[in-house]
Design a protein that fits this description.
Blueprint (H helix, E strand, L loop, with lengths): L1 H18 L11 H9 L6 H4 L11 E4 L3 E5 L5 E4 L1 H10 L7 H4 L1 E2 L7 E2 L5 E9 L1 H4 L9 H18 L7 E7 L4 E10 L1 E7 L2 H4 L3 H4 L11 E7 L13 E2 L18 E6 L10 H32 L1 H30 L2 H18 L3 H34 L2 H13 L6 H17 L3 H18 L14 H11 L5 H9 L2 H9 L2 H42 L14 E6 L3 E4 L2 E3 L2 E3 H7 L11 H8 L13 E6 L11 E3 L5 E8 L17 E5 H11 L3 H8 L3
Antiparallel strand pairs: 1-2, 1-6, 2-3, 3-10, 4-9, 5-9, 6-8, 7-8, 9-10, 10-11, 12-13, 12-18, 14-15, 16-17, 17-20, 18-19, 19-20
Helix pairs in contact: 10-11, 10-12, 10-13, 10-16, 12-13, 13-16, 13-20, 14-15, 14-20, 16-17
The protein binds arginine and aspartic acid.
Length: 706
Amino acid sequence: MRKLTRSFYLFFISLSIFAQQNRMWVPSDAQKAYYQMMEKGARFSLDDLYHPEKPSFNDAIVQFNGGCTAEIISPQGLILTNHHCGYGIIQSLSSLEHNYVEDGFWAGSYEEELPAPGAYVTFVRRIVNVTQQVLQGVSDDMSPERRQSVVDKNIAKLKQEIQTEPWQYVEIKPYLYGNIYYALVKEDYKDIRLVGAPPSSVGKFGADTDNWMWPRHSGDFSLFRIYAAPDNRPAEYSPDNVPYRPEKYFKVSLDGVKEGDLILVYGFPGRTQQYLPSFAVEHVTQTLNPVRIDIRQRALDIMDKYMRSNDTLKLKYTSTYARVANYWKKWKGENLGIKKSNAIENKRYIEKLFLQQAGTNGFGEEAGRVLEALKQAYNELEAPDLARNIFIETMYVNNDWMRRAFLIYQWENLHGDNYAQRKAKILDRIRSAFNRTDNRVSKELFIRMMAYYKQKMPEAYKNKTLFEKNIILWADEIEKTSLLADSSKINRLALMDYNKFQEALKNDSGYNLARTLIDDYYGKIAPEQSRVKEKINNLMRVYTKLLMQSGLYKDMVPDANSTLRLSFGEVRGYEPRDGVYYEPVSTLDGVMEKYIPGDYEFDLPEQLLKLYEQKDFGNYETGGTVPVNFLGTAHTTGGNSGSPAINAKGELVGINFDRVWEGTMSDLFYDPKICRNIMVDMRYVMFVIDKLGKAQNLVNEIIQNQ
Ligand code: ARG
Ligand code: ASP
């Protein structure tokens, strides 16, 4: 009897092992995924999914501005992404007089579209498995350094050999820690213009309180357009550019979704780490997360205080606040989820099974050695990785003055080709940093962050002499005398010749202190951390190779690495805790339930209230209301925001934008029972464009194609 229970348990565990692996398929290697989608009712073809020569879904999907995803929804290059992905752009095009964040923005014609300097989108036209070529001449007994140099040489050679058009370029990236390599043929379009955005009360409805949560009621979308040279090729911004004519765009469907419907999410997931061993998950959740959460909490409190007191400060800090709060909350959820799903126990069990399996197949010794070496390497990583994270959080992410010092440091160390051009770029960034900050806030952030650093930086990495200085006097000094706090000093600096420039930096005591800290980082913390990280990566490559050999996982789908992936699932609710079931669809009724007049997270535009009162829902109505958000079982991560949610007919029914609270640990441990992605329903998007934005031109452009 006991034996039976135990084997049942084993069976259950191994099932969940298969389940928790990565599910983000590389499009050129997604046949197996495609057949599973067909079983779930997919009516598009394998060639629609991805094809290197014919127009296919990947031709209608772009990486948006290096981070998010966007999709093309009209023959005139109109693209749809999240509001939170376009937010930085919308904010930088706004002022208190033209406040597109607050009021939204709808271009009535091409002429009214607003160029977004610096924004770009990236297409992936072709994906080629080049593992064999990259690993040619590599053998298992090579030192990691030797191996890398062979790999680098092979990559350089391959880049020359792969045929591309003049406007394309090739990237070759490691997958599964360098057990697999793919070449990606890409195109960047650099003339991107803002076309439409709802007021942030709709686009960001629920803001940080609702972030990473279900039920959700956010209209998280914005519209841009890709512009191209008259020959349809990529070009820098020019008034002569024309709307890009795509090879493929998604038809927007107003059919909606219901529980059980197939859903395909296709985009650019940033980073997952599904195959980390138990002690590595402990490192992330027990060593790093608590410290990062703690630091961000302090910074958020300060920003919040000032933002509530003053509208100008609110506008300046709102984007920074949202960015900092996003991962602060994510890490909190991640730690809860790792605990609740017994991830560490499960991972330990996987390691045990792995060793058993390896033993049976004659590589037990090697498997044991690798895991042991990894464990030791993670011990070694603890101090430098903690130091690195404390440094980045206190001296960069949450510290305006110090972040600026980094830019000036880059400027100071500039030489060689294109000096003037690179200097101008850095200056732009410094100036825009000044526009987004205020010394009242910056000073308090500085003091709090320096105090944290002084207290918590591991001794071996702390600059003790520097921190004998009184932090408050230090802050006063920067505020009164330093170019870190005075943009007019920066403007003067920009006009100086090189010697004068050096002289001025030398005499700026605030900047000198900052530089000492930056030198500490580049001289000590970063090299030590990356030395150990390097070692870990090499061990992880061997570990994943042995994992593949062990056959423990059915398909070892590579972790996300900011490359194009697809993930499918279905529309489905979940049980967040015993006795509670979450429905997979939310509606406008729920938006109204959450409405708090004047609140900075739950306010609504008056016009929306009117539409609701009059039940003026147009074509977007179903069951007497408008569907707003829905849940799916697709495996997604940061970077998947803005990804198209595609139905069985290959049409666009939603835009991905978030995950649920109970599933925020999915980057480390994917549990299909409770991990869900959250999408905006296209009917809500169209309702907002049509009824709230009254942007008939856009409705026509999107719907007339149908
Ligand atoms: N959690 C989502 C993602 O990781 C949405 C973030 C946008 N909202 C915010 N408060 N920052 O990007
Ligand atoms: N909100 C994320 C993004 O911006 C998506 C996620 O983490 O689920 O990419």
